[in-house]
Write a structure and sequence with these properties.
Radius of gyration: 27 Å
Number of strands: 18
Shape: globular
Distance between the termini: 49 Å
InterPro entries: HET, HetReg/Transcr_Mod
Helix content: 25-40%
Number of domains: 3
Largest sheet: 9 strands, mixed
Strand order of the largest sheet: 5-4-2-1-6-3-7-8-9
Structural class: alpha+beta
Number of helices: 22
Protein name: Heterokaryon incompatibility domain-containing protein
Strand content: 15-25%
Organism: Xylaria bambusicola
Length: about 700
């Protein structure tokens, strides 16, 4: 009992916007870490630095003395405080592990809700990357400064010459050397860049300063250089195997970036799925500060209102402007046309999306956009709730806020579903489940499977079930094993494109027509071209590339022919082709593949099919779907979603009998343009209520 009394006892914070700040004693005053936790009011503009760091894996390896009593902290936090404390005067620092009573769930929720202001109002956000054991970081930071000077000069010259075109010509100077890329990749592999909470801490910072040992650099510089290298030297980074490290830093920085393009909160959370948290609830709570989480905003707000309370230094403003130039923006992708939707009322664009499109016509305004907006979040942190309740409530709120079922596209099961027993509802995204599978649906989707119809949701007596209106179309017949990008891009592996060609009857001539779904009294626009259906299914119908970056203008016909020609040439090198049909086909491809890029098709197919299975429905339709797909699973289109889904019948749904498990989204060639829903979806149509549980 005596030892317990020596530990620090937190005094309750008064109501309002009160926080604790550590008054850290100077190094000259004490060799050990000592300080005083004081209560301050954010409304009175207290001076402090906010610490952004990784807690570390050690539970309680060391102690810091606060107000005369011990508080246990991790070794990583202790290291950060030792490096950050001033030599001769105290320093005021906010660090979550110290300044929040982690044992008080109610206080923790209240303080997490204030984090937006805590980091945005801080005079500096000190980013602790860890010690510099080999003392090479100072040299690296100097090289970063030098490269950014060259980058800025090149952009200014190009602007003057090309009247503001947003690109940089590096042809006149050598590419970055492998040694600096090696050192940057090694830095970006540190644990700091793998965590979830640091995304908001960097995103909200007016003055982010990275500390690595005794070396210091403006964090904006590291992020801007990472984005520039990704944009202009992506093939080089890919050849060195560093794409993952650089993309992680760029995504961390861009999450709060005022980019002119629609993004919703589930897009943000999905991109951070591979990042780690200690508490699974924080997969949602860590983004409470994001502008798209405001109560009065459905998408990212671009109004330019609510500038940060503290003015930014000129250097930071300049780096923010530079980051806008080197980062991919919405003008690199083309929205799908809505002209063919028909007479059904469209889901209206949000005010934020309208503002985003205005910014495209006036790009100068985006440089003034802040990363901080006033107003409360619709997410209310409550650490008394279970992970299931937090994720379930978030999914329901996103359906209401977006007036769509887009959030269902983020359901990506990594393991087979349990047939019975308690657990997560199958239709609720498991944000704590790592996934690098590209999303087919969402706000930037190219498809309109439900003809852009609003969702129709029937109240359910079971709070964990979702009753939605939709249409059943077919059942899964056969499918491949789960695929990876390497199955398409690794030349040493047999590509599924060729192993499935016989099953799909595209390797014989003449090739039979692709099945057409007939709707009484309706002439569908679907093409009977079976080879076209085969080519486009592997890339999920994408004809302009994949992902959030600049589109690569994929040409499915030419690029597929070039990819097939590459296959025959590799086959011929290993063993001369003697089959007459193969020789004839290879000769024909010499003309068909002119202007095509086989590697481009392989990459697009690999991105779309990664983590998925290719399948054929019982009616003969081609598709790619979830990795846990099984024969007899049903293919459905749900109103309010732009892509079809795979569902599986369940004997029991909660306390009721009969229902369906959501297996995941899919692409089915012939169901992506909304023709069938427009034909069947009238007042007397064949739409049904489907209970997901």
């Amino acid at each position: 009992m005596a030892s317990d009394m020596s530990l620090y006892q937190y005094l309750p914070l008064k109501p309002g916007r009160k926080i604790r700040v550590l008054k850290l004693a100077a190094e000259q005053e004490s060799r050990d870490l000592e300080g005083e936790l004081i209560h301050v009011d954010l409304d009175l503009d207290p001076e402090y630095s906010a610490l952004s760091y990784v807690w570390g894996t050690e539970l309680a390896p060391t102690k810091i003395k606060c107000n005369g009593h011990d508080i246990e902290v991790t070794e990583n936090l202790a290291q950060a405080l030792r490096h950050l404390r001033h030599e001769s005067e105290p320093r005021y620092i906010w660090a979550d592990a110290l300044c929040i009573n982690q044992e008080d769930a109610e206080e923790k929720g209240h303080q997490v809700a204030l984090m937006k202001d805590i980091y945005a109002y801080a005079g500096e956000v000190a980013i602790w990357l860890g010690p510099d054991g080999e003392r090479h970081v100072a040299e690296l930071f100097a090289e970063v400064d030098e490269m950014l000077t060259l980058l800025e000069g090149s952009i200014e010259n190009d602007f003057a010459r090309l009247n503001g075109a947003q690109w940089v010509n590096f042809d006149t100077r050598p590419s970055p050397t492998s040694p600096i890329l090696d050192k940057l990749a090694l830095l970006f592999q540190r644990e700091y860049f793998t965590r979830t909470w640091v995304i908001q801490e960097v995103g909200l910072a007016n003055r982010p300063v990275a500390h690595c040992g005794k070396s210091v650099i403006n964090f904006n510089k590291l992020a801007v250089l990472a984005m520039a290298l990704l944009k202009y030297f992506r093939p080089l980074l890919s050849s060195l195997g560093y794409l993952k490290e650089f993309e992680r830093v760029a995504n961390l920085y861009r999450t709060y970036f005022p980019q002119p393009g629609s993004q919703r909160l589930y897009d943000i959370i999905h991109r951070a799925r591979l990042n780690e948290v200690t508490d699974s609830r924080d997969k949602v709570y860590a983004f409470i500060s994001h502008p798209s989480a405001r109560e009065d905003a459905s998408d990212f707000p671009y109004t330019g209102e609510g500038m940060p309370k503290l003015s930014m230094a000129d250097e930071d403003i300049k780096l923010r402007a530079l980051s806008v130039i080197v980062a991919p923006t919405a003008d690199t992708w083309t929205s799908a046309s809505l002209d063919h939707i028909g007479d059904h009322p469209l889901r209206p664009p949000s005010p934020d999306e309208v503002m985003a499109r205005k910014l495209l016509r006036n790009p100068g305004r985006q440089l003034k956009a802040p990363r901080y907006w006033p107003g409360s979040s619709f997410i209310k942190p409550n650490y008394n709730l279970s992970v299931v309740d937090v994720y379930l409530d978030f999914a329901k709120q996103m359906i209401t806020r977006t007036d769509s079922l887009e959030v269902l596209s983020f359901v990506q099961h990594n393991a087979p579903l349990s047939p019975t027993g308690p657990g997560f509802p199958s239709w609720v995204p498991r944000w704590d489940s790592p996934s690098d599978v590209a999303v087919l649906g969402g706000v930037k989707c190219d498809h309109f499977a439900s003809a852009n119809r609003r969702p129709v949701i029937t109240p359910s007596p079971d709070p964990s079930s979702l009753i939605v209106r939709g249409q059943f179309f077919d059942r899964v017949g056969l499918h491949t094993i789960p695929l990876t990008r390497d199955d398409f891009t690794d030349d040493s592996k047999p590509s599924p494109l060729w192993s499935m060609s016989k099953r799909c009857r595209v390797d014989t001539y003449p090739i039979p027509d692709y099945p057409i779904i007939y709707v009484p009294g309706v002439v569908l626009t679907q093409s009977p071209d079976r080879m076209k259906a085969y080519r486009q299914t592997w890339t999920a119908g994408r004809t302009m590339g994949t992902g959030d970056g600049p589109r690569d203008y994929l040409n499915p016909e030419l690029d597929f022919a070039a990819h097939e020609l590459d296959y025959f040439r590799r086959k011929d090198r290993n063993q001369p082709i003697t089959d007459i049909a193969d020789l004839v086909r290879m000769m024909a491809l010499e003309d068909e593949a002119k202007g095509g890029n086989g590697a481009r098709y392989a990459e697009a197919a690999g991105n779309a099919s990664h983590g998925r299975c290719f399948f054929i429905t019982k009616a003969g339709l081609f598709g790619i779907g979830p990795k846990i797909i099984e024969p007899e699973d049903a293919v459905v289109i749900l109103l309010g979603a732009d892509v079809p889904f795979i569902i599986r019948e369940k004997e029991k749904c909660g306390d009721n009998f009969g229902g369906w498990a959501l297996i995941g989204e899919c692409y089915v060639h012939g169901l992506m343009t909304g023709d069938t829903i427009r034909a069947w979806g009238g007042p007397d149509g064949d739409l049904k209520d489907i209970t997901l549980c």
